[in-house]
Design brief:
Elements (H helix, E strand, L loop, with lengths): L1 H23 L1 H26 L4 H57 L7 H13 L1 H14 L1 H23 L1 H10 L3 H42 L5 H10 L6 H17 L3 H28 L6 H42 L2 H4 L2
Helix pairs in contact: 2-3, 2-6, 3-6, 3-10, 8-9, 8-11, 8-12, 9-10, 10-11, 11-12
Length: 352
């Protein structure tokens, strides 16, 4: 009993030190966590390339170049859209001002009972002067940014650190796992490896399911926006669908872009409402049907458990809880399954 208590105290101290270190190092751990997630996702592809007799370092470089190309492709899809929408906005603003003078001004005069002078050209000149003075605004913002140069440098360093850490993690993945395995106590070794393999399988199924969700929702948004005659249905649908892995970001960003495009293209509110309805239906479809079906079933979670996991982890950990809810729930499911087996085989359960 004394020996077991001593071992328990030792592990408690080790856990306390680890949690304390994680708490103190929290501000600098973000790029390492992000890099570890990327390395875990990309490692199977690196392994397949290495199986084709490619040097592992070269395989890692190819995968990272592929990630860079994917990011560049998304930017190339977004930038022309934003450029055209901004140009259309500058053309339409004077038209809106004139329409407001024709329709809104009489209503204001009727409601307020006073005569209101509305100089359309003066308003246009005012807007144009503010638009042209953006450089002055930037000049005022730059000193503010300069005062916070340390924070900006820290953010930039973290962003630059992610690809560097990802590269080394993917290159040395096998060796790092072997070193971690050596630290596992021998009497726990077999069980920890068994649980780790099951967790790896579950997370792989989660990733496959999430990719399927992204592709299906991209197809849904593209087709649905095309049916409501939105001009930029293809780029907006792809962006909204591909970002569904970050809860609400894909829907919110897609909705903003689609609303801007609809305001530029359509002249009636009903057409814009149809665009909003597409994203409302897409959010319901993704949250209530597609994710529970394609992700929940793959990782062994009931659709109700998927919904509960999203709500519970979101409540506990906020945005990052939503982002990691399903993989964390899948890992917890594996641990609980083994804990249940151990409990059913224990004397506590069998004792009569």
């Amino acid at each position: 009993m004394t020996l077991s208590r001593s071992v328990a105290v030792q592990w408690t101290l080790v856990a306390a030190v680890l949690f304390g270190a994680l708490y103190l190092l929290g501000p600098i751990l973000s790029p390492f966590v992000a890099a570890a997630i990327l390395a875990y996702i990309c490692n199977p592809l690196v392994a397949k390339l290495s199986a084709w007799k490619l040097p592992r370092t070269f395989a890692v470089v190819l995968v990272m170049v592929g990630l860079l190309l994917v990011g560049a492709t998304l930017l190339l899809i977004m930038l022309p859209l934003l450029q055209k929408e901004i140009s259309l906005l500058m053309v339409r603003v004077p038209e809106w001002i004139e329409q407001a003078r024709i329709y809104l001004l009489p209503l204001l005069q009727q409601w307020l009972g006073v005569s209101i002078e509305w100089d359309t050209q003066a308003i246009k000149n005012l807007l144009l002067s503010h638009w042209q003075s953006a450089g002055g605004v930037a000049a005022k913002v730059l000193p503010w940014l300069g005062d916070r140069g340390g924070v900006l440098l820290e953010v930039a360093a973290n962003l630059l650190l992610i690809p560097v850490v990802t590269f080394y993690l993917m290159r040395d993945w096998g060796g790092l796992l072997a070193k971690v395995e050596e630290l596992i106590p021998r009497h726990w070794h077999a069980k920890v490896l068994e649980i780790s393999r099951e967790v790896d399988v579950v997370l792989a199924e989660f990733l496959r399911g999430q990719i399927a969700v992204m592709l299906l929702m991209s197809l849904f948004y593209v087709v649905a926006l095309w049916l409501v005659r939105l001009e930029f249905a293809l780029p907006i649908g792809i962006v909204a669908g591909m970002l569904v892995f970050i809860p609400y970001l894909g829907m919110v960003l897609g909705l903003l872009l689609a609303t801007l495009a609809a305001v530029m293209q359509f002249t009636t509110l009903s057409d814009i409402v149809f665009v909003w309805a597409v994203f409302g239906a897409g959010q319901l479809l993704e949250g209530m049907v597609v994710t529970p079906w394609l992700v929940g079933e793959r990782i062994g979670l009931h659709p109700l458990a998927v919904i509960f996991a999203l709500l519970a982890f979101g409540q506990l950990f906020g945005f990052f809880g939503l982002l990691l809810a399903l993989p964390l729930a899948a890992i917890l499911l594996v641990v609980l399954r083994h804990s249940r087996e151990q409990y059913l085989n224990s004397s506590m359960y069998k004792k009569t």
